[in-house]
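Weekly structure sync - notes
Attendees: PM, LS, DV (DV joined late)
Agenda: review two folding runs queued last week.

Item 1: First target. Sequence and structure tokens pasted below for the record.
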Amino acid sequence: MLGHHRGATPFVLSFVSLLACADSARAQSAGAAVDLPDIVVTADRRAEPIGRSASAISVLTREELQSFNPTSLVDALRSVPGLDVSETGGPGSTTAVRLRGANSGQTLVLIDGIRVNDPVSASGEFDFSTLLPTAIDRIEVLRGPQSALYGSDAIGGVINITTRSGRGEPRFESRTEAGAYGTVNTSTSASGSIGPWSFAANGGGQKSAGFSRYGYRVGQLERKFPFFEPDGFNRYGGYGRLGYDAGEGVKLEMGMMSSRTSAEYDAASSTLPRNVVATGAGRIFPDTPANAIRQLSQIWARATAETGPVDHSFQVYANQTDRDFRDVSYRTSTALATTTSGRTEFRGDRVGTEYQGDLKFDAFGSLTFGGRIETEKATTFSTPLLPTLRARSRTLEAEQTTKSVFALYQLPIGERIILSAGGRHDEVDARSFDTWRATGAFLIPETGTKLRASGGTGGKAPTLYQLFEPTFGNAALSPETSIGWDAGVDQTLFDGRVTLSATVFGNRFNDLIEFNSATSRYFNVARARTSGVELEGGIVLWPELLRMTGNYTYLDSEDERTGLSLQRRPRHSGRIGFPITPAPGLLIEPRITMVSQRFSGNNETLPLVPYARLDIYAEYKIDNTWKVFGRVENVTDTRYQEILNYGTTGRAAYAGLSVTW
């Protein structure tokens, strides 16, 4: 929700002035022209050149993801304009992502084209800490309301994560990295094809002793409490895909994945009295030995057939999200008599089937259409452990079925104009909502220019928790809705050595679901609006040696009931990178991430100071088989917070080795 205007901090002004020269696009070497990825599939539910897409979409490749922290997607996702991320105390902790100021539960997340938002969480968001980053091959981020294509939850946009598929000669890769905070990360992957068969697989594990999620490097807390115990985590998992080309345009494919994260956290840090003091030898408040286990599992099968003018795709899928929290709270001391603890279990299940057809009319465009039937189930359990052990009890069991139909017509007019219009109808048990989307692009190849615009509506069905939780639920809730638009220009100059992308956008959200503390119920009471500017691009400053890349987001957000800014939405944020290739096979890239003031509490309370963080990544490719790499996070040891009183990394160094054969 949009707040009163505040002056930009000096580092933000400097950042914007640099981006006035060029925004960030990605290239594999400094001497080459800056190239955008060729094909995207998320913008219109079918493969198309990104240069012909009228949507605001960004792509992160596997190579880019590998140059960031492999234990968390947070740092890599900050390369996307319009996207904001917050962790509750470092890798392994609960991680929320917001697009264009929408709530985290209003961003739809897909893995291999299948929705994975948690059916049992209160707001239905996807927790990125459940995912093993080494299994990812590519991420496409589609910004703006996309419910006409993808249904519920796609109000802020869509994050489509894909795992690697097999193609070409069999190929194997192993990577290992170790460094600060007792961190070790390792993974092995294989992919390729043999005759009509294709395969891909990845397995890996990560562990870290970590740092205290609450209070680490927070001055006022460290002065009060001389010691915080580290909160570590471990994660392991893998995925596999198997495909068969039956010939005559018929292909079969199946895949599965599973990832398990066990992380320590400080359960009662936000509820303890402010006057709590350290007690006992080495034990303090508000540190607590709580632990969370999260597991995400998915399996799917897909058949595609190209039959002349119509391509068919049919898939079935199932996934499950399990979260198991072991809470510990100290009320007045660490003595057993004043300790309370309990176990809370959340299980979300999803099973569904979807059909999509693509009808081609040659010069008259194409029609994409289909439907989906999906059932979600939420189950929760509670077990009090201390001070009195009680029996495990079921606290929620509910399910709902979604039935959807959609269609999108895309029409090229000559070689310069591409138009599209589509709509969708969703029925979620007794509730239903209709959404639409329209886009247009105008290409000027003589000047390397693309003008684009899009508009549409979004919808989000109430979650099972909001509807049926026995104490807080409200079965009369209506879907959340939104309407949004964007317009932008993509420009290349000097034979592709400079790329620029600028987008302006606006959104209005209605019937937002909030918890009313006075009645202890959820209600459709909130209204909000967001608007802003997104910049992205890159420039070759010195051929074969130096590039500059960057992205910047200006976000104005307002709670329309109060006129104040929304919680945790920075007005200015962005990143600048300077990839340097001083010798063949050697890459050194300093990156500066900058975030302006934002508020950790509602109604512009609990302000967080602006910060700038410097990271450096380097790699040296010895030959086609061996590569060494390293990175230093937070080089200047900047103290900052993403959520009030939760810790972030200090200066930390890591190094690793990759072998490919």
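Item 2: Second target, run right after the first with the same settings.
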Amino acid sequence: MNRFKHIWKEESATLKKADYIILGIIILLYSILSFYNLGSNINPQTYVHLDTDDAVVIELTGDATDVTKVRAFAGPELGTYRLYGSQDGITYQYIKDMELTSVFSWFDTELDANLKYLKAVATSDDVYLGEIQLYDRYGYKLEEQAGDDFSLRSADELDTVPSQISYMNSTYFDEIYFARTAYEYAHGMTAYEWVHPPLGKVIQMIPILFMGMTPFAYRLMGNIAGIAMIAVLYVFAKNMFKKRKYAIMAALLMAFDTFHFAQSRMGTVDTFLVLFILLAYLFMYKYISKPKEEKLSKRLGLLALSGLFMGMSIATKWTGCFAALGLAILFFYHLIKNNFGKGKKWTKDTTIIVLSCVGFFVIVPLVIYIGIYFLFPNLVPYPIHNLSDLWKQTQAVYEYHSTLNATHPFTSPWYSWPIMWKPVWYYVAYFAGNMKQTIAGIGNPAIWWAGAVALFYILYRAIFKKDGNSAFLLVAFLTGFLPYLFIGRIMFLYHYFPVLPFVMLALVAMFKGITERTKSDKFMIAFLIVVAILFAIFLPIASGRMMPEEYINAMRWLPEWFF
């Protein structure tokens, strides 16, 4: 018991053997959960490329029979197909249209036809069709083959046809943009999603190059980034609060947050953005915490890493610019505080630091941003051939975001995000027996609601107690949150994701204050137990586990909680 207490209460900003073991256990357990049913690693990899009136023909290997369903896989370009049936392969009769509305997804089209041949005729140019599977009246797959050489790629991977369509084998929510574009980058095609910089999609592309275009592959890097965020937050808290127990709490908050869990497992780029922002702030915090007498090369190295990750965040999403503002405020405040005033003077080292930061926080981010565009220049509306094209592309991105006038049932105003008033409903599927799969971007209520209180705590500490940690967290939070006051386009709860780690650190700071005042860890431990219980309760809703519909409906605690 004494050994456990020593490990739990150890005081140090540096990581020791026990830290690596504890963090390793947390990450291992979280990874088991996050990789479980992340997505199938089996999906069609070949497609028939069709233009208007091109046709794919599927031939049943036996006699003509009643066909009640067609299951088809959509490739990287969508289309509607006219379906025709034939007994002899010569005379065809129109049956109905088959519409595929989501890229890299399976779709069922109900039929009522007796046939030996099925012809799918494209109604538009430049569409891609994967496997086509026919089913008999009992719901069993029919033996089939391609009816001609042109159609081979729609019947060469029939073993990939799933027994059930779900998020496990099909794209959902914004994967239709980001995962699709990662595939297009991997194959040198014109990129569909152009309203965000390329870096996140390039990272997402890496497993696709080696594993093919499967849900597991295009969700893999985001899930790894989500796991890495747990480790970074542990290190951040260890540096900030100087005690292992607070680092453990911070890591557990991240691991037990269902919003982080759902968002990281989806094939989008937000997890990369948040990881890079968190790393940029971590290295800035480490720099600020170093005494002026610390070796210059070490301080410069920390600033270089902060600038590097800041640049990577901006090259993923422009939201990284909000972090750049926060980092600038922190850097210049520290610069002024340490170099101006009674008994302080500007040194040669300070000059070197300031000049170096031009490179770290201006030149390096620009090189990353411009370089990633020139490495992957195939974009709409402006393919990148020179800086003029990049400027036009940048203007087009700005115009898109500043004038977007779309609507969406799960949009929510910025001021409602801290209390999680309206989650984002990413996916739903209904099954027999009143069973349901759902994936919602909903956080752990204990973390989010207590976190909203913790924000007022750090505000109080920063203003009235002049607490440096609280001020740091407040700057990181406000510069990532308040800019949304001035954004008129529709917004979603996931726009709160970049500041969520700082809310968690604020929560740790609040419980640190409670612990020091009461001289007991019992409130912190009790809170973590509640967090773990709520994580288990809400995990099915964040992970797509098949559950009775009554259970899912019972979790709708607020009027705007739809999932």
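Discussion on item 2: The two ends are 44 Å apart (CA to CA).
Action: LS to circulate a short write-up before next sync.
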